[in-house]
Amino acid sequence: MANKVFIDGEVGTTGLQIRERLLRRDDIRLISLPEAQRKDRAARLEAFAQADVSILCLPDAAVHEVAPDLKAMGARVIDASTAHRVDPDWVFGFPEMAAGQRDAIRTAKRVSNPGCWSTCAIALIRPLVAAGLIDPAHPPAISGVSGYTGGGKSMIEEFDSGKVEGSFLYGAAQSHKHLPEIRLHGLLKRAPVFVPSVGQYAQGMAVAVAMDLNRDGIAAAEDALRSAYAGEAFVAVVPASVDQPRVMPQRLNGTNRLELSVHGNPETGAATLVAVLDNLGKGASGAAVQNLNIMLGIEEGRGL
Ligand SMILES: NC(=O)C1=CN([C@@H]2O[C@H](COP(=O)(O)OP(=O)(O)OC[C@H]3O[C@@H](n4cnc5c(N)ncnc54)[C@H](OP(=O)(O)O)[C@@H]3O)[C@@H](O)[C@H]2O)C=CC1
Ligand SMILES: CC(=O)N[C@@H](CCC(=O)OP(=O)(O)O)C(=O)O
Q1: Which residues of 238-275 are buried (b: 16+ CB within 10 A; e: fewer)?
Q2: Which of ligand 2's atoms lies nearest the C-alpha of 117?
Q3: Omega of the bond prior to 245 within 30 degrees of 0, cis?
Q4: pLDDT tens for residues 152-189?
Q5: Of 58, 116, 209, 284, which is the active-site residue?
Q6: Can 57 be counted among the known catalytic residues?
Q7: pLDDT, tens digit, for every residue of 250-299?
Q8: What domains appear along the chain, each with residue ranges and CATH number?
């Protein structure tokens, strides 16, 4: 029998992409609300009650409004928002992050999908902290570029209407919403400096972590990443040549993959760890579908 899934916010950027991925499947039956009831509380609660798993693709405030009801009814939920990523009552939905994470997701009632920036940053930093190559009290700086779909409907409208032209840096005041999850799940003792940017293109993300390593450290960093993600279908360490001379943020668009590479100059010790993903794939809807499959006990890569 097909599993029933309700996507709350199914006409938003993330919701639509999850919907597209699930519509192709015969093992999933989507519960959909008519347009007039899309934000009707009673109709949504009824849909949550019917679903085997619901996926919240809402702004944080709308998630906080409904979260206590979901907990009270014991509903199984995946939250795509930032609302619960450092909440101990929710399981962090990054199955490749640590031994045991996938099993925790499999049995969880409440799973919080990671952010797109934090997926990249945590994937690079956590194994290096565990290997003793990053001092958790002095984390390396992070930078990156994302397509404008990462900012949801409002940013898409800004670019599509021509209100914003060209690329920009942001987050300079160091209060980006992904910093708490990077700190917690990156095993850091303080938040790193993070300077993201948005490029004048729709989709795809590249993140760089700036490191100070010697020749042996550069090789050791690559070894640590390789052993952390050995055997994973969606996270891989690729040869540096894939991301040289240019790191192309759009090269994994349409996939659920996250690819990592290690670069550096052994003469100076300056090194760069690089992560590339599709912000709407492994950075959002792909990750949600992967978590859904795990929660339902279905083959993890189905529909991805
Ligand atoms: N875009 C991205 O790359 C990523 C986004 N996310 C997260 O996913 C969530 C959704 O983001 P995104 O898809 O980009 O956002 P969008 O703004 O594109 O979509 C949000 C949707 O939620 C609907 N909505 C708002 N309030 C309510 C409510 N009270 N009840 C029901 N529906 C409501 C909106 O309706 P309306 O259309 O009427 O405005 C809209 O359709 C956010 O929390 C975001 O942080 C996570 C990872 C990546
Ligand atoms: C380009 C852009 O603006 N990106 C968003 C994050 C996208 C993402 O992963 O966000 P959630 O935390 O909403 O899941 C930002 O930096 O705020």
Answers
A1: eeeeebeeebebbbbbeebbbbbbbbbeeeeeebbbbb
A2: 9
A3: yes
A4: 889 999 999 999 989 999 999 999 999 999 999 999 99
A5: 116
A6: no
A7: 999 999 999 999 999 988 989 999 999 999 999 999 999 999 999 999 99
A8: 3-114+283-296 (3.40.50.720), 116-279 (3.30.360.10)
